UniProtKB/TrEMBL annotation:
It comes from the Bacteria. The lineage of its organism: Bacteria, Bacillati, Bacillota, Bacilli, Bacillales. Pfam families: adh_short (PF00106). InterPro entries: NAD(P)-bd_dom_sf, SDR_fam. It comes from Paenibacillus hemerocallicola. This is SDR family NAD(P)-dependent oxidoreductase. NCBIfam families: PRK08303.1.
Length: 294
């Protein structure tokens, strides 16, 4: 294992890796040398999300371009048989090995009604959000974690929004994100005797493809959007959380973080990595400095 490929020989699954943080995580795990199973519903010629063209095939190609091995497997993580088949395939192809599982399925943007009390929010959309963003994680871990338990090693990362249990402004969104944090906390307790670590991880202000489109900018000129939202100056690329995952997966003492909810910017300061432009944004510190002291 070389110092610049600390995850060479490791096998990872990144769910919801079509775009955004999932894509950034998959690519940076690939750069660290891992074999990465890239999963999601959008495949070449058949994108599953209205208005979005990104596919898991593109993400797998980016993993390969960074020096890893990217394997795209179409998987609907709300469908138990899909998930069971995914890990059956990994078991056969990797001789039962799974080192890293990143649960990043979300799919709730189009379902969230902001500034709407829960009794006026679409009930169907609210429940579907839990199915996509919480149940999918449970189903995936149910089938993936036994591969880690069998080898008494592994890391499970639950990607969420925020590091605490405070209300996030709309009930169904808040429930999904808080539940994901508790999934990590509960899994960590169950997995501790088996040598497997589970934790939660959140990006800061994520500069995803959809966010860039929302602001009418690209990654090249993203700073133009700061005029619309001053807080956007503290945003980060999807590769930043990807570097956080790679750092955690490379840390021999990661078990000390079991059950915790962590943020990309804090981990950047701890592990010494930067975003792709050399900056080191810390949304956690910025939020506390800007909003909590008002």
């Amino acid at each position: 294992m070389s110092s610049n490929k600390p995850l060479a020989g490791k096998v990872a699954v990144v769910t919801g890796a079509t775009r955004g943080g999932g894509r950034g995580i998959a690519v940076m795990l690939g750069e660290a040398g891992a074999t990465v199973y890239v999963t999601g519903r959008s495949v070449k010629g058949n994108p599953a999300t209205d208005g979005r063209s990104e596919t898991i095939d593109e993400t797998a190609a980016l993993v390969n371009a960074r020096g890893g091995i990217g394997i795209a497997v179409r998987t609907d993580h709300t469908v138990e048989e899909d998930v069971k088949a995914l890990f059956g395939r990994i078991g056969r192809e990797q001789d039962g090995r799974l080192d890293i599982l990143v649960n990043d399925v979300w799919g709730g943007d189009s379902l969230t009604q902001w500034e709407t009390p829960f009794w006026e929010h679409s009930l169907d959309n609210g429940l579907l959000m839990q199915r996509r963003a919480v149940h999918s994680h449970i189903i995936t871990s149910h089938y993936g974690v036994p591969m880690m338990v069998a080898r008494r090693q592994g890391l499970v990362i639950e990607v969420t929004d925020g590091t605490d249990y405070r209300y996030r402004g709309t009930l169904y969104y808040s429930l999904a994100k808080v539940s994901t944090i508790h999934l990590a906390e509960g899994m960590a307790a169950d997995l501790k005797p088996h040598g497997v670590t589970a934790l939660a991880l959140t990006p800061g202000f994520l500069r995803s493809e959809a966010v860039l489109d929302h602001f009418g900018v690209s990654e090249t000129n993203w700073r133009d959007a700061v005029a619309k939202d001053v807080h956007f100056a503290q945003s980060e690329t999807p590769y930043y959380i990807g570097k956080a995952v790679a750092a955690l997966a490379s840390d021999p003492n990661v078990a000390a973080k079991a059950g915790k909810a962590l943020m990309s910017g804090d981990l950047a300061e701890e592990y010494g990595f930067t975003d792709v432009d050399g900056s080191q944004p810390n949304w956690n510190a910025y939020y506390k400095r800007t909003f909590e002291r008002q």
